Amino acid sequence: MTVRFAVLGAGRIGQVHAAAISSVPGAALVAVADPVAEAARAVQDTHGGEVRTIDEIARSDDVDAVVICTPTDTHADLIEQFSKTGKAVFCEKPIDLSLARVRDCLSVVEAEKATLMVGFNRRFDPDFMALKSAIDEGRVGDVEMVTIVSRDPGAPPADYIRRSGGIFRDMTIHDFDVARWLLGEDVESVVATGAVLTDPEIGRLGDFDSVNVILQTASGRQAIITNSRRAAYGYDQRIEVLGSRGMVAARNHHEADIDIAGAGGFTRPPLLNFFMTRYTAAYANEIAAFVAAVAEGAATPTTGHDGMMALALADAAVKSVDEGRLVKLAEVLD
Amino acid sequence: MTVRFAVLGAGRIGQVHAAAISSVPGAALVAVADPVAEAARAVQDTHGGEVRTIDEIARSDDVDAVVICTPTDTHADLIEQFSKTGKAVFCEKPIDLSLARVRDCLSVVEAEKATLMVGFNRRFDPDFMALKSAIDEGRVGDVEMVTIVSRDPGAPPADYIRRSGGIFRDMTIHDFDVARWLLGEDVESVVATGAVLTDPEIGRLGDFDSVNVILQTASGRQAIITNSRRAAYGYDQRIEVLGSRGMVAARNHHEADIDIAGAGGFTRPPLLNFFMTRYTAAYANEIAAFVAAVAEGAATPTTGHDGMMALALADAAVKSVDEGRLVKLAEVLD
Amino acid sequence: MTVRFAVLGAGRIGQVHAAAISSVPGAALVAVADPVAEAARAVQDTHGGEVRTIDEIARSDDVDAVVICTPTDTHADLIEQFSKTGKAVFCEKPIDLSLARVRDCLSVVEAEKATLMVGFNRRFDPDFMALKSAIDEGRVGDVEMVTIVSRDPGAPPADYIRRSGGIFRDMTIHDFDVARWLLGEDVESVVATGAVLTDPEIGRLGDFDSVNVILQTASGRQAIITNSRRAAYGYDQRIEVLGSRGMVAARNHHEADIDIAGAGGFTRPPLLNFFMTRYTAAYANEIAAFVAAVAEGAATPTTGHDGMMALALADAAVKSVDEGRLVKLAEVLD
Amino acid sequence: MTVRFAVLGAGRIGQVHAAAISSVPGAALVAVADPVAEAARAVQDTHGGEVRTIDEIARSDDVDAVVICTPTDTHADLIEQFSKTGKAVFCEKPIDLSLARVRDCLSVVEAEKATLMVGFNRRFDPDFMALKSAIDEGRVGDVEMVTIVSRDPGAPPADYIRRSGGIFRDMTIHDFDVARWLLGEDVESVVATGAVLTDPEIGRLGDFDSVNVILQTASGRQAIITNSRRAAYGYDQRIEVLGSRGMVAARNHHEADIDIAGAGGFTRPPLLNFFMTRYTAAYANEIAAFVAAVAEGAATPTTGHDGMMALALADAAVKSVDEGRLVKLAEVLD
Questions:
Q1: I need a surface site. Which of A63, B127, C27, D78 has the fewest CB within 10 A?
Q2: Does D219 touch chain B (CB under 8 A)?
Q3: For residue C271, what is the DSSP state?
């Protein structure tokens, strides 16, 4: 069975997913929608999907699944709309910036028994998958500490930050999901710190650029997340897991695997600088996993629940910084 | 302009090139030929080229270029045949195992003013390209020594070895080309050693499995090549260049960029084990470079001359081991 | 001028310092004291200091400086006693487990204008010194985040833990000092988490074995400290500092700098497993720095104030875990 | 039993050995000799040996062993002189630059049943010892290829080169010994190349600065040695051994184990730049091994025979470059 796709939103990430759909066996790009006609047409020209409106896609019999790459504030509505059409839905994170809205949306998904996968691409990075496999195979014993260093090469534009929901909901949310994935237990509490160190403009927008978070589970497992909106040496993406029998760590990706040695030392090129280059394989694997789930009628590897829980952790982190205290996850979920 | 391709030979390497053609912008796969009907059809089904015979392809107006992936002993004939059709030719190394035959073939190519690129994929590996750029940018100063470690995970089947022309012409030939590319001067002399250490069967076939070669240029630059048909830890592919101001080295590629630490130490996964996986990007870049050259009517980055010179170095290495002495390249070329 | 030393306490760490004194130019070991006669005599036999009682040493005209390596609960008394004799004092951390007692002790030191250096050996590790120099030379720009991973190979005996003051005062205290050294600004607040994951016995003793701490300065700089009492792969000691222009990181020390590659991957030996082996050079450098300061009448690189501040951070961390909130350092200092 | 030492020659390497003797348990420095009075006195002042003449030392009852650190052309005479006194002899490499003279000298040693250890410090480097242990434990299976990269940071003065016997006898000789140590079989043949690339003055002195050598044993095992008198990035000392089941490799030593990352990449400091710093531990281990052998009346780990064989390999390499051919070791030994 070939899963026939429509991509909603033909911006940067929509193009990434359109390319992934084109390259994944068992998937076909049938349609693409975007209010900006040229954007939609560019995808059509490169990857072959037909330009349609979202409503046309909702009515299209030849579409089995949609990938939602539209602005965040449309995600929940579109999930609800397409859940009711019986089409499988892949939605970029986050479902919404409001936990209440997410909850309502997920009720609809559940009522419709719809298929919903939320895009947490990092779970599909080959190295992180190898790290997870090592844990699952027991090579580090029982998980005790997860350490995540996640730093962007540079901050997004002010306009993006303004609508982002803040660094915890926009950037750390990926790390919250990774931490949940690796801890192997539900997170119970959150403490976080935040500061503005790279650009005062970020502070004027009410956001932070430098944050740290400690998550803790009921049994005491801890995850430490450290984020910065700036890293002069590239896109820093590291995960390390300490267990009772050892540790597993994933290395960064450099622009090239060479070393140049001279009187000043041995130099490796900086890190890959852009999330799409760094996570090219992850995006392709992610769509392939969605295709496999849809084709087999199986559960998707990430779900609406995962999207909600990552957002809840972000809300708890915001509250922790605001109130200078440890916040129980239950406080924001109830 | 789109370069329209036919692939001759639908075996393993033919499939690699068909996939590359499909993915490279500005290239289209039009036809595929193989005496084994299912092999040709498999390429057609996956990548869309039409199954034709070689002669049909030679007569096809809708084919601009061919990629020769047939058995080695057909290469020179096909190069000549297609040179006369005005089609651009990309041929997998080697052109032939006989230097005399190569020379005759190249005369035809030259007479026809045909375009011929010989497939030395390593020059197109992203890391090796970065290494070459570092040299060209003067970051290591004048090149003095090139060190190439090139070890296969395991030996090919006896039947392959029998027809291979021996390790120097089959395996080291890639390293000879890399050495020529990086030395920046013509090689003048060759000394080599060879032994059978991994499997006595290889010796019975009259071949070696463990060889070392030192190339030297007129000014004294040296390249050291070390080959083995067996490396328990994977496909070992390293290059290192010492210059007057420093050194540049390309690292190996592991199955995953993780480390697992325990009481026994810190373990990284073994190296990628298969040349197609290791050089996936190189194969795609190689075809893209050929497409660019054909589209622009420009010189190809590797030529028939490169193919001939690498083979001459192999012949000189064979002679060096046989006679226990340094062999001038001129001895085999004249 | 040669600085003439007496070592008080001939246990494990006393032996380390006696050896360092013997090897440092400009220092001489004159005397050693220990209630266990054989321990004192062993130092005398190996390093040449004469066995005396502490009181004899206090009255000795031929002793310029003492190194206090006795049990923690005697440190403050001995510092006071020797400060009054005009001898320079080097004291192993901590000065005392009670901040009030430390404060009183330091008043005496100040009143006597005595020289007091507190043993924070990590500041003298060659790699950490190189890291600090890189920061001081501006190679990473303004410091933003300090990340310290510090894990012991295994927990000390229950009896040691019982008298240790808890993990924050016993183990993290080193990391608190390193963080203060590298942050370049006073710490203002502390949040911490703690759990028992490696051995329930540690919990029964009222201590944690797995803790994380975030320190924050007034301007928002943050230090993240992660500790565990167990690391199967050896003594894990890493520091990483992110700045506005880059990052500097110190690598771990392995038992040997070799890699063994096989079908299972590439393995480096585990980390040096013992603090004395890992920090051999640091202990020697530390004593050399003390000797230099005493000989020149200069300020010591670490002071009683450093000892007090590290302890205050530990107290704040304890309070943070207890009360589930961010604790201002001023709360414990006032 | 304490082995009582005299050091003959108080230059740079004599000081290294005097320091090693002082620090090794079971060894004592009793005397030092040097025609330059201040040099001898400096050793006496620092390490405590009494200044004596060589002849006085030969007659001294309180000296059990001598370490010969005098100029090369005195080594053989001193070995013979002290062999006859019944004192154990440690001699810096080489015994002599003439193979005939070495042979004569070793006859005397043998006739006197004297103890002679030749200083091949690299065998005592902790990492190389770990590499050797890995081989001996069978972790790489049967040895097939040994690869040695050995590059000096810069060339010695012209005057030194003039008296050195040439790069193969002066510099490569260490690598010849290491290759012999690791191959596990007698070397049968040698091929070598040489050139002048770093400084034409070296050529005017009749020497090379850039050489490569391939050694081969009867069963076909090969060792590849690559040397340069210049490496802008420091003292490059690497060994790698391929076996039937894997590979073991020893890493270089950097000035510090830190990485500084910025927009230009990730930089590690250059390599330790000086053989005494790089091999500090090796020199101490070497003397300790000699002390242990003398104290126990056991065989020394390196012998006069090792010194002779390394020199024979150097002679064969010289002949190979001169005559442009593979040279059997038997040709120079007979």
A1: D78
A2: yes
A3: B
Nearest CA to C209 out of A146, A217, A145, A249 is that of A145
Out of A191, A220, A245, the one facing C197 most closely (by C-beta) is A220
Query: Rounded CA gap, B159 and B179, in Å?
Result: 29
B48 pLDDT higher than 90: no
Q: Is the bond leading into D35 cis (omega within 30 degrees of zero)?
A: no
- Cα separation, A257 vs B134, in Å, equals 12
**Dist CA C124 CA C118 (whole Å):** 12
Q: Does A156 touch chain D (CB under 8 A)?
A: no
Query: What does the CA dihedral A325, A330, A332, A334 come to, rounded to 10 degrees?
Result: -150
**How far does chain D reach from its first CA to its final CA, in angstroms?**
42
- Checking if the pLDDT of B196 tops 80, the result is yes
Do residue C267 and residue B263 have CB atoms under 8 angstroms apart? Answer: no
pTM for this one? Answer: 0.96
Across chain D, mean pLDDT equals 96
Cα–chain center distance at C173: 7
Which residues, 6 or more positions from C55, have their beta carbon under 8 angstroms from its beta carbon? Answer: none
Nearest CA in chain B to C153: B263
Type of residue at C190: V
Check if the beta carbon of residue B50 is closer than 8 Å to that of residue B43: no
Which residue bears the tokens 């030979």? B9
Residue D268 in contact with partner chain A when CB distance is under 8 A = yes
With an 8 Å Cβ cutoff, is D222 touching chain B? yes
pLDDT at D286: 97
User: Is C273 touching A (CB cutoff 8 A)?
Assistant: no
Give the 3-state secondary structure of residue B132: helix
What SS3 state is found at C303? coil
pLDDT tens track, chain C, 334 positions: 799 999 999 999 999 999 999 888 899 999 999 999 999 999 998 888 899 999 999 999 999 999 999 999 999 999 999 999 999 999 999 999 999 999 999 999 999 999 999 999 999 999 999 999 999 999 999 999 999 999 999 999 999 999 999 999 999 999 999 999 999 999 999 999 999 999 999 999 999 999 999 999 999 999 999 999 999 999 999 999 999 999 999 999 999 999 999 999 999 999 999 888 999 999 999 999 999 999 999 999 999 999 999 999 999 999 999 999 999 999 999 7
| Chain B residues touching C233 at Cβ < 8 A | 261-263, 265-266
Residues of chain B positioned with their CB less than 8 A from the CB of D236: 247
Measured between CA atoms, how close is A181 to chain B, in angstroms?
17
Q: What is the pLDDT of residues B9-46, one digit of tens each?
A: 999 999 999 999 988 889 999 999 999 999 999 999 88
Q: Is B121 exposed, middle or buried (0-12, 13-18, 19+ CB in 10 A)?
A: buried
**CA–CA distance, C120 with D132 (Å, rounded to integer):** 37
Nearest CA-CA distance, residue C196 and chain A, Å: 7
DSSP string, A271-290: B--SHHHHTHHHHHHHHHHH
Question: Hey, which chains touch D, using 3+ CB pairs under 8 Å?
Answer: A, B, C
Radius of gyration (C-alpha) of chain D in whole angstroms:
20
Tokens standing for C311? 């302890």
Sequential DSSP letters for D143-201: EEEEEEEEE-SSPPPHHHHHHTT-HHHHTHHHHHHHHHHHH-S-EEEEEEEEE--S-HH
Size of interface C-D (CB pairs under 8 A): 82
- Asked if C269 is an interface residue toward chain B (Cβ–Cβ < 8 A), one would say yes
Could you tell me which of C216, C190, C180 has the C-alpha nearest to residue A196? C216
Question: D274 phi and psi, to 5 degrees?
Answer: -140, 135
Write down all domains in chain B, each with its CATH number in brackets: 3-114 (3.40.50.720), 123-275+310-333 (3.30.360.10)
